[in-house]
Specification:
The protein is an alpha/beta fold and 355 residues long. The chain has helices at residues 11-23, 38-43, 45-51, 72-84, 99-111, 125-131, 169-186, 188-196, 206-226, 241-254, 261-279, 284-297, 305-315, 345-351, and strands at residues 7-9, 31-37, 59-63, 91-97, 117-122, 136-141, 144-151, 157-159, 328-333, 336-341. It has two domains: 3-167, Rossmann fold; 170-198 and 228-351, Dehydroquinate synthase-like - alpha domain (Dehydroquinate synthase-like, alpha domain). The chain is built from 14 helices and ten strands. A four-stranded parallel beta sheet has the order 3-2-4-5. It has a two-stranded parallel ribbon with strand order 1-8. Helix 6 (125-131) runs parallel beside helix 9, helix 7 (169-186) crosses helix 9 (206-226) and helix 10 (241-254) crosses helix 13 (305-315). The protein binds nicotinamide-adenine-dinucleotide (NAD).
């Protein structure tokens, strides 16, 4: 089944499908677990239950919020809870939260009793357009991002922009970075739409964001369906992430002030756009346009020499590397991206100085 068939875009239809799925004799779901964090328990769970009453009987498993919780110890806590409440192959896990919840919950489901079924209901913008789409699940190994994980498919997912109503602005802006990326790597028209979109009143006009979310999902989905296991084309989704993930790991490890995922990726996209200009044919005008649009919304920071060496050494451990060479996905022009690009070390370091 194509991933797109599994996306039940927008609330009413999706919730009805979920209800039917839970009641269906053939799917034979015996008990349901809803994985939440502190904030999605408060802000999102009541909305879900008000639409799918039968979920009132579910077991709720709550974890602490935040990237620091995305580790194997949290998984162990969840597996213990599942065991305690007698989860088995006829159980269903519903991941209700941002990318941290859908990544951990998907991973937990993929290996518990060799695999139980799960559904994603993303509640952050980033979760809706990116983290819940594309079969990747996983946790961090100390500060190494997504080092442990699996490719595992949800039964389906439900996208409900209503959840944006309570999402903090910094989280909204974080999700927007991945939407910019989708335009930059695969769809110039979408980049133009994103460039002109405003974050003002996103809570009030949450439903209108549904249209952009839908387009963004379609871009990612088309790429993932062509190459689900990331053997080739899917690597273009890593644009901005080779440096972005290293920055995120660095900040998690060495700096108290955590760098939020979308900001790290936005910084990565600016640096990697410069590399695209240097080695992959991106025009200087396009590079400057990308830098100017992203710097308006994201606090792109300077990287000192000392930080640079640490960040570089994190990149050397990136799981996407081939024969110890750091691999980049770089833009050819806005809307077109190449993958498996190698760049001289000196240029990578120079890219950090372009802000
Ligand atoms: P997150 O899950 O940490 O959520 C951010 C914060 O928002 C949390 O405090 C959460 O409690 C709160 N929150 C969530 N929904 C809310 C709502 N509706 N109202 C109020 N508060 C709400 O962060 P995220 O940005 O969604 O996800 C980041 C993670 O996603 C990273 O770990 C990243 O590696 C992962 N990711 C995975 C993939 C993938 O393909 N699997 C792709 C991109 C990102």
């Amino acid at each position: 089944m194509l991933l797109y068939d599994k996306i039940k875009i927008f609330n009413e239809e999706g919730y009805k499908i979920l209800e039917n799925y839970l009641l269906d004799q053939v799917t034979s779901i015996r008990n349901t677990f809803i994985l939440v964090d502190h904030y999605t328990n408060i802000h999102c769970l009541p909305h879900l239950i008000s639409h799918v009453k039968i979920l009132e009987k579910s077991n709720i498993i709550q974890i602490k919020p935040g990237e620091e919780e995305k580790n194997i110890y949290t998984c162990i806590q969840i597996w213990k809870q599942l065991e305690k409440f007698k989860a088995n192959r006829n159980s269903l896990i519903i991941n209700l939260g941002g990318g941290v919840i859908t990544d951990i919950g998907g991973f937990v489901a993929s290996v518990f009793k060799r695999g139980v079924r799960f559904i994603n209901i993303p509640t952050t913008l980033l979760g809706m357009v990116d983290a819940s789409i594309g079969y990747k699940t996983g946790v961090n190994l100390e500060s190494i991002k997504n080092e442990i994980g699996s490719f595992y498919s949800p039964e389906f997912l439900i996208i409900d922009p209503y959840f944006l109503k309570t999402l903090p602005e910094k989280e909204f802006i974080s999700g927007k970075a991945e939407m910019f990326k989708h335009g930059l790597i695969a769809d110039e028209k979408f980049w133009i739409e994103m460039k002109t979109s405003t974050i003002e009143d996103y809570r009030k006009y949450y439903y209108q964001w549904g249209n952009l979310i839908h387009k963004s999902i379609l871009i990612k989905n088309k790429i993932v369906d062509k190459d689900p296991k990331e053997k080739g084309l899917r690597k273009i989704l890593n644009f901005g992430h080779t440096i972005g993930h290293a920055l995120e790991s660095y900040f998690m490890n060495y700096q108290k002030g955590k760098l939020i995922h979308g900001v790290a990726i936005a910084m990565g996209m600016v640096y990697e756009s410069w590399l695209s200009y240097k080695v992959n044919g991106l025009s200087i005008n396009s590079y400057q346009e990308i830098k100017s649009i992203l710097s308006e919304l994201y606090p792109i920071q300077n990287i000192s020499d000392l930080e640079m060496d640490k960040i570089f050494s994190i990149m050397e451990h990136d799981k996407k590397n081939d024969r110890n060479k750091i691999q980049f996905s770089l833009l050819k022009k806005i809307g077109t991206c190449s993958y498996n690009c190698q760049v001289p070390t000196s240029l990578i370091k120079e890219s950090f100085l372009q802000i």
